[in-house]
Sequence to fold (188 residues):
Amino acid sequence: MVQYFKTIWSGIATTFTGMKITLKHLFTKKVTIQYPDENFPLPETARNRLFMEMTKCIGCKNCAKICPVNCIDIETIKVSPEDPHKELHQNGKERKLWVPTFEIDFAKCCYCGLCTEVCPTDAIIHTKEFEYSEYNRENLVYKFHTLTPEQTEEKRRLLEELDAKKEKEKKQDENKPGNKETPGEKRE
Ligand code: SF4
Ligand code: SF4
Fold:
């Protein structure tokens, strides 16, 4: 019988202990927030979605080489000296490489920040944006290039023409009298 009442008393006492803790927290500062209506302020060093500033990108591919998960895909085309649309980078230097393809697959990115560390021009940076989930994985491949397919074709054609011109000049040079090797003769 004594044990019976002891158990009832223990139940009442533990209920009051729990209620005491609940009441105490009613008057302390809230630590939970109503996400997504409210957000915690992110630290300055937060590493979230990357952003590319294509006018700063020199096409060096350092970012793609260092990426541990190969989620950056870059294609470059040398700027032909005969290109009528040469452009300057933000630092005022002439662009040497066009970047017709610059894609980042955010489904693979692990936000390590290595690409931002090795970029010599700070063209690629982390932003504070982290709410960009998608239903379709393909939508997580971000395309940052600035050339249209037609412009890319034009740049390729200009470079091919330049290479063909150089090859022709080389052959003409080799066939000049004095430069031509005769059978059995070895040029130094
Ligand atoms: S943050 Fe890391 S994983 Fe993401 S693109 Fe840059 S190097 Fe690759
Ligand atoms: S490291 Fe920077 S400059 Fe070089 S390709 Fe990547 S984003 Fe462009």
